[in-house]
Amino acid sequence: MMCKSHENHTAAYIRLSREDGDKPESDSVMNQRALIREYVEKNPEFLPMKEYVDDGYTGTNYDRPAFHGMMEEIRKGNVTCVIVKDLSRLGRNYIETGRYLEKIFPAYQVRFISILDHYDNRKEDGDAEQMIVPFKNLINDAYCRDISVKIRSHLDVKRKNGQFIGSFAGYGYKKEEENHNHLVIDEYAAEMVRLIFYMKLEGVSTGKIAEYLNRMGVLPPSEYKRFCGLKFDSGFRCGENPGWSVVSVNRILENEMYTGTMVQGKTRKVNYRIKEVRPVPSESWIRVKGTHEPIISPELFAQIQELRKRDRRTAPEKDRIYLMSGYVTCADCGQNLVRRSVKKSCRIYHYYFCSTYKNGGGCTAHNISEKRLLHSIEAVIKRGMSVLDEKKMKWTGRKNDCRIAPLERALQLQKNMLIKELARYQKLKKSLCLDEIEGVVSPEESRELYGSFERKEQEIRKQYEWLGQEELAIEDAGEKDEKDAALPRELFVNLVENIIVYDKKTIEICFRCEDEIELHFEKEKKWEDEV
After folding, report:
1. Which of 66, 104, 109, 203 could serve as 52's disulfide partner, Cβ 3.0–4.6 Å?
2. What are the pLDDT digits (tens) for 477-501?
3. Are 198 and 490 in contact (CB under 8 A)?
4. C-alpha–C-alpha distance, residues 432 and 442, integer Å
5. Is pTM beyond 0.90 here?
6. Are 325 and 302 in contact (CB under 8 A)?
7. Greatest Cα pair distance in the chain
8. Are 365 and 504 in contact (CB under 8 A)?
């Protein structure tokens, strides 16, 4: 609908970018308002006037709420005149600003005035200014490009110096109070990170790790940030009770930051005009080692990445993969051997077969009994344990090994967290009664909120009880392991590089510390010969 040309329904448009200042009601907004009002008072033809303010929005694009609102009123015919302080307040995008000035505003018969640029598209004597306006728009656009380049360069310098420049620290860390560019460990979240890595080392599937964390009542990273009072918002939040997922656990497992290496520059905006963020190839990420205290060792991180590349299928109806999954290969084709169960005379036997042969690829079966394979590996490992100085782990007495300790610490920390959560909801219930008395909430709202707090308290108590039971179960499992003396997964992956199967009776075990083991066996054999 076209506007009536003899009436002026004026819109004062005010814009402030974050680079100009990010106060809720900044001096710049106040100055723009004062300048426009002074201009309108001297020219009563522009009354009445309505303000449209975009505080904290860039001028490189026109995706701004107040601007959209003003354009909607223009299309309805409710605004016939737009006044701004200067052209840069309308926008700094040369092409888009020119389109509004030369096509959109004239199409709706909107009068546009830029006070400091002495520009009025209705004045006949403004021809000279009409020619200058495109150049001013171009200068504004160039200014924005220059600012963008300087900011990006400044941030890159900080990244290369190992300074953290993100809005929020990654899960397991927090910003140091005195220096927000430096990360320090958040002990509670860091212990959950350690638990995730050690459970993965033990062979627990990613999905089962997520289920276990949810069963413990551990808040996922986004919810934990909100719990800590951070104004965190993410598009990944979903549902009323968001929890851990395979995706969130995998993000933890692949994050190199936990080794004490600062990794930044993973994404980059297309340019200063386009908000779209695109991923940067991993080889172009900025990495600086030793910038903060590590949560896990670089060796463990590298080992986990290797394990994630191997066969990660979970054993049927179990929460973890088989001990040798991804480590047994065929001597001829180099492919992994797959585990299969065969039932004979009411007994179940387990064998490893060549996957190429199974899929009809032409190789031979190379099948070998799992029992025979385990017996051979255990015998060799037992003989070589005494020489593995850096890899020493007690086969028995696993209560003190690298798996049990993180789990016990995580359970105790989570119990402490639940106690705090319970106290918080009890406090909320007390304050709710006062709010009802003072009329802050209605009796109906109070009853509804009180009921939700009660349900949350019951849920926390159940989780606390389960954690206590889990601690007892771990203690019993430790005692059982001491009696059974089963080969632990973490010990196996720490020692074994690969197992090559030639036939039913011939296998080759490649150890990570092969030189030390061979030296030990040579000395042992020499001693036996002398005797």
Report:
1. 66
2. 655 555 455 667 777 777 788 888 8
3. yes
4. 10
5. no
6. no
7. 118
8. no
